[in-house]
Structure formats: C-alpha cells, structure tokens
Amino acid sequence: MAHDSPKLIALDIDGTLVTYDDVLSAEARDAVAAVRAAGHHVVLASGRSLIAMTPVARELGIEESWIVASNGAVTARLDPAAEMGYVLERVETFDPEPVLRMLKEELPQARYAVEDVGVGFRMNELFPEGELNGEHQVVDFEDLWAGQVTRVVVRSPGETSAEFHEIAARLGFDDVTYAVGWSAWMDIAPQGVTKASGLEMVRAALGVDPADTVAVGDGSNDIDMLRWAGRGVAMGHALDAVRAAADEVTGSIEDDGVVAVLRSLL
C-alpha cells in the first residue's frame, strides 16, 4: 500500500479524546481536523450511546463519517441530509431477560438500564445525573425485557471492577459480550459485538487496508479494538491489560496523549 493511502483512525471518546470531566482540548480538536484534512477517516468508537456521541462529532467538526456506538452494537453514518443527522447502518440486539434475571439475583441493589437507540434508556431506577444521555424512562424491572435491546447497563457502586468480572465469570456469560468500566459499571452487548466488530464493518465499507487502521483507547472495552487495529495505541493512564493489548503506549489523558498519535500520522 502506498504511504499516502487514507487510514481509518478509530478514537475512543472518554479518557482518550475528552477528559473524565468531558473536556475536549483545542489541541485535540485541531489534531483531528488536521488528519481529516490530510484525507484520513476519523471514526469515533465509544461505549457511549449514539445520541451521546453526535455532540462530540459536532464539536470536532465531523459532519460526515461513520460512528461506532454502544461498544459496537450500533453502527451509523453521520449524514447532515438525514432527518436525525445520521443513518443507522447496523443495529445488533439480543434478548436481555436471561442476563437481567441472573444479575438481579447476584446484585439486587444494582440499577439496571436498557438502551432505546436514538431515544435514551429505560431503567428500573434513575441513574445519577449525567451518566446516561437521552430520555430516561423508569419502568418496572420486568418491563426492561419487553423487547430486544442493543445493550444492558448495570450500575452497582458497592462492587469493585474485579467483583464484576468475578460475577460475570460465575454466571457464564457465554451468549453476550460484556465490558466492565473503570468504576462499578458493566455494559452487556450481544455476543461477539465489540468496538472491533463495528469497526471491521466500517473498514470494509470504506475499503481501507487492515494494515492502514489505527486505534486509540484507554478502557477494557477498547482491548478488542486495539488488537484489531494495524496500529493499536493505549493511553498512558490505561490499565495494564489494555496496555498489553496495544502495539504502543502514548501519553495519558492529562498529557493529551492522543494528540501525539494523530500528529504522527501527518
């Protein structure tokens, strides 16, 4: 492949592009603009829901691009001409009832939510302000499995990340894919669905060579994406397991580590 062939650059949002206080630096914004001006494809890939990602795309000046949301369960194309500003290209769903029933026995105090794509979340109890985007509808626990969903969110501040992993292993989550967040938070997706599976669809659609893919991330839900990429880059503050999955490690979010990676592509 020629050196100047367009690359697919997959960027996680929280802890990679924006700080945990949701701040996007001017340097990061400029670096994204520069690689896009050079002809590369910048694709946001996040655990966030689609409606929580479109404002970030807007802030980055990205009007037309692909977007991988909900840890890969939702793949969309940003299109300013579309009514919602995007077109859903693929939505992966599963029946959440078995998982919810098992988890409720293990974690009766937890808060549970299921995603309604493009709208918000249904939940058995309100989540703390700012943690989930879109409309919030509180329903009876049994109503959470009224239909197929793209993901289940479990929030249980009493548990550690290690305890979440232990519970998931004990319950034998073999028909779903799960990612445990930096706090007591678990996202459960359809089986085999990760940021990497969503990005692979985007890569094929764009016709980018696998060797010309770059991914930057900091969370356990980024591990598959970093392994998938021709060049996987972990943020400096990432956990050891995330760094181990990457080809290289850049600076932390405090150092705007993503900027150095983007500039290296110019």
UniProtKB/TrEMBL annotation:
Gene3D superfamilies in alphabetical order: 3.30.1240.10, HAD superfamily/HAD-like
Taxonomic superkingdom: Bacteria
SUPFAM superfamilies, sorted: HAD-like
Pfam families: Hydrolase_3
Record-level Gene Ontology MF annotations: magnesium ion binding; phosphatase activity
GO cellular component: cytosol
Keyword entries, A-Z: Hydrolase
Protein known as: HAD-superfamily hydrolase, subfamily IIB
Species whose genome carries this gene: Promicromonospora thailandica
